[in-house]
Write a structure and sequence with these properties.
alpha/beta, nucleotide-binding, Rossmann fold, seven-stranded mixed sheet, ABC_transporter-like_ATP-bd, binds adenosine-5'-triphosphate, AAA+_ATPase, ATP-binding
Length: 310
């Protein structure tokens, strides 16, 4: 069993057709996601989050570089991976019961029928209802029942909670996290709901313009930043540090920095929240990337392609 859920080296994906990045949806992405983490994939619209998840699910092949999942090429790990795409494709003509039966048939030996049925029952879904007659949020519940019932080692969820009402979101997130904790499942979920991620996730990948801008355990990323506030001369306060964003506020100036030495006297330094860090990076797309040592790929693209083809 590998201690790495996903590892990418120099990963690039180019789609045909005109685009603002010369057709590159992802470019030069390198990172490592340790197994057992709950990882948030965050970034602006069009950043490359879905493309990254689809590579991990084995649905897209890289144009350059490599990506391994649970130590193998994603296609070799398919039985151990479950993936819910953003549009949550299901068979519209099947009923809820028939959909779960299909899940059972497709996953012999690992299907957790009790769990899948509980997720559907908790949403008060009529087992005889056809998928096409369900609401978007109800379909999401069935899709989550299917992937959790599979008991995957790696669960890839592309904006899983977007169309759920707040109560359903809270309840399903609770079920998801409890199952992941019990079975050591690695979960990767993209989301735009920053507040939700801070509670649920312990690892972060921030994708921007097709590149990994931040990667690491959330505790390590928080520890690498400081929110400083003060009124003194700007140059003294900010000089040695990497400044992600600085803004004038009622109290003088507030800046999110990556400290490179002591903070200047007279300036207050506080621990930023995950939301502070994400918003500052989203507002400052040119800030330098940061990958913590735990999130740095251990292998080069050539090592990984040799391992995958061996
Ligand atoms: N099948 C495709 N063919 C052509 N271009 C694509 C395709 N899929 C994605 N792209 C392009 O790749 C880039 C990244 O798209 P992707 O869907 O991965 O972004 P995202 O971060 O998931 O966005 P969102 O938050 O809006 O879901 C975009 O510029 C998009 O237009």
């Amino acid at each position: 069993m590998t201690d790495t859920a996903i590892e990418a080296a120099a990963l690039g994906k180019r789609f045909g057709g005109p685009s603002r990045r010369g057709g590159w949806a992802l470019r030069d992405c390198g990172f490592r996601l340790p197994a057992g983490r709950i990882c948030a994939v965050v970034g602006p619209n069009g950043a490359g989050k879905s493309t990254l998840l689809a590579h991990a699910a084995g649905l897209l092949e890289p144009t350059e570089g490599t990506l391994t999942v649970l130590g193998s090429h994603p296609s070799a790990a398919r039985e151990r991976i479950a993936y819910v795409a953003q549009d949550k494709p299901l068979y519209p003509q099947l009923t809820v019961t028939e959909t779960l039966r299909l899940g059972h048939e497709l996953n012999p030996g690992r299907w957790d029928a009790a769990l899948a049925e509980r997720i559907v029952t908790d949403g008060h879904l009529d087992p005889a209802a056809r998928i096409r007659d369900l609401s978007g949020g109800q379909r999401t519940r069935v899709a989550l029942a299917l992937v959790l019932g599979k008991r995957p080692e790696l669960l890839l969820l592309d904006e899983p909670m977007a169309d759920l009402d707040p109560l359903a979101r809270h309840q399903l997130m609770g079920t998801l996290l409890a199952e992941a904790a019990e079975h050591g499942t690695t979960v990767v979920m993209s989301s735009h709901i920053l507040g939700e991620l801070a509670h649920a996730c312990d690892f972060l990948l921030l994708v921007g313009d097709g590149r990994i801008r931040l990667g690491g355990a959330i505790d390590d990323l928080v520890a690498a930043h400081r929110l400083i506030t003060g009124r003194g001369p700007l140059t003294d306060a900010l000089a040695p540090h990497t400044v992600i964003e600085s803004r004038a506020t009622g109290r003088g100036l507030t800046a999110l920095i990556r400290p490179a030495g002591p903070i200047a006297p007279g300036w207050e330094a506080a621990e930023p929240s995950l939301e502070d860090i994400l918003l500052a990076h989203l507002r400052s797309p040119d800030a330098p990337a940061l990958l913590t040592p735990g999130a740095t790929a251990r292998s080069s693209a050539s090592d990984m392609s040799a391992a995958v083809t061996a």
